[in-house]
Amino acid sequence: MAMARALLPALLSLALTGVPAVLPHPAAAVAAVAYDGQSRHESALFSVKSTNNAAAQAFTVAGTRLSRLSVHLGSGAATGTVTAQVRRVRTDPGSVVASKTLDLAALGGAGAGWVEFPVSASVTAGTTYYLFVQATTAESKPVAWYGTRQSVPGSLNSWNYDKAYWGGWHAETTSRPAFHVNPTGSERCGETEPCYVPASALAARTSGLLANGVATEAVLPSFAVGASYVDGSNVLRLPSGRWRYLPEGASASAVVEAGDPGALAQVEESRGWLASGRVPGTTAAQRAATQRALLSMRALLQPNGAFAAGWSPPWAYSWPRDGAFAAAAFAGTGHDEEAYRILEYDARTQRADGTWEARTKLDGSGPPDARKWQLDGNGWVPWATWQWYEAAPSGDRDERLRALYPMVRRAADYAARSLGPDGLPPASPDYWEMGTATTNIGTAAPLLAGLNASADLASRLGMGGDAERWADAAGRLSAGIDAVFAPLGYQRTADGRHGRDSAVAFMAPPFNTAPPGLGAALDSSYRELLLPNGGVSPGNDPDFSWGPYAWTASTSFFALAWSGTGEEARADGVLDWVLSKRNGLGELPETVNGAGLPSAVAPLGWTDSLVVLTALALQGSPQPTPPMPARAARAGATSDGPARAGTAPGGAVVRTG
Q1: How many angstroms separate the CA atoms of 182 and 310, rounded?
Q2: CA–CA separation, 80 vs 126, rounded Å?
Q3: pLDDT digits (tens, 9 = 90+) for 511-569
Q4: Residue 569's CB: how many other CB atoms inside 10 A?
Q5: Which helix (H) or strand (E) segment is 133 a member of?
Q6: Most buried of 26, 93, 248, 593 (most Cβ within 10 A)?
Q7: Taking Cα atoms as reference points, which of 127, 129, 143 lies closest to residue 49?
């Protein structure tokens, strides 16, 4: 199965580009590919594109009824039809006993994989019949029936009908088209081999998740086609009707009959977990999306508190930023244990100086590479801690906060010390994960949220000195942002040279109290970042292009910001667009490509968290915003402006440290 999954894109590529319009010989072969459904299923290709090509396979059956035929097809054509027939005489259309025609566009267009043809016919046991396949399309691209060079139980010789080269039907004794008659169990597509996978489905690396509380497994796009989750769970219902799930204690999934006790127990456990909290949303579509988002977030959360961004190798790390949003979403929906587990992981992985690596391995052993650390984590983690505290059961929350408080103190002290004479932090990579020459709003705004949160947490625990120190720092940072970023409409960088940034939304609730003029900045930023596919780019830096890809997280920033600033209708509209880009399993992708299709990975935990937080706000239960302490508010209101280290276009102050 692993080889089938790994090589499907290569097979699809061959189907799309590598098969000549008319094959010179039915035994034309490419690299062998092992499949579990048949012994040594190899890519002996038979062109089946009319009018000059078709293929047939002789077989016998033990029973007396035909209910389903299955063939392995690759099509470069997106439109047209493909017909499978069972004939008594291979060359005689009048001898048909069963026939079914499927539309290529309805299958998803160009693609490759097993195609199942439902039929209903009586046959005679032991009699030889012929499975005939032919495709019709106006496109010049090929349609091929993949084959095998090994014996297939119940099969006899195959024939290729190639008028252009051979003048008619010719027997082939070494190659047989890949097929099943009345497939059952693992012979059904979607179990050990994929159903027909449209090329468009391969824009994403993953399509869903299976999980058992300890281990997680990605559902690859090739095995998501035609599948759906059993409601309220991470158990997958396959096209065959059977279930795939990750059994307790296992690290690899198993396919079982529907209603299997082990799988059913997992379904009930997941539903119980959902019922222990809230599934927010003002519409059925929103509630369905947030339910799936919460289950996917739970699957991405590891037992040690690491929160994987996604479940594909480049994403399978824990970012403090992503974890902070997940902790806030868990807390807001009543899942206290999951939120606190993330924060405990943050405390264990904090560096001695109070900062965090950009990301860590999921076992907490450290960073996977030399990617530069990112200062915004010093804002996001204290903000998430405050969000957890606000939602936590009151009985022991102060005691639990004290366990996290050393982490908060180190983070807030570092953030406060990092501020320059202008009140702004130094330049640092932020959620773009690339450096800037001057301070960026993607760092400054989270640090303001974190300092306000830290000051309030300190007050709750009676730490007056800490509270005063961090309130003073928050005031200086707020004044710096007002002086530098506000005149620029909260553009990406303090020098005003790098365009708009979706991080303008970080100045809104539930991160920060919206300053005067933020509404106009949100409006103008959204307009400038909006793409033809309806989503938003993270930014429009003239020195860097994000291409045609809309990022669902950046788009969701605006939905969350508008939901917190009284623009519910606009928030609803943006959220609707995000939800419209869920894949067939209902998962939210990281990006949406220029064709409007989910791409990169699905699910993305950050987008899941943002959708949950937005839905909470729209149903009237928004996450609170850390208050700006009175000292900080006075400093922000009365500041004459930060010390000038340089001047950006328009007279804005710049700090380059």
Answers
A1: 38
A2: 34
A3: 999 999 999 999 999 999 999 999 999 999 999 999 999 999 999 999 999 999 999 99
A4: 8
A5: strand 128-136
A6: 26
A7: 143
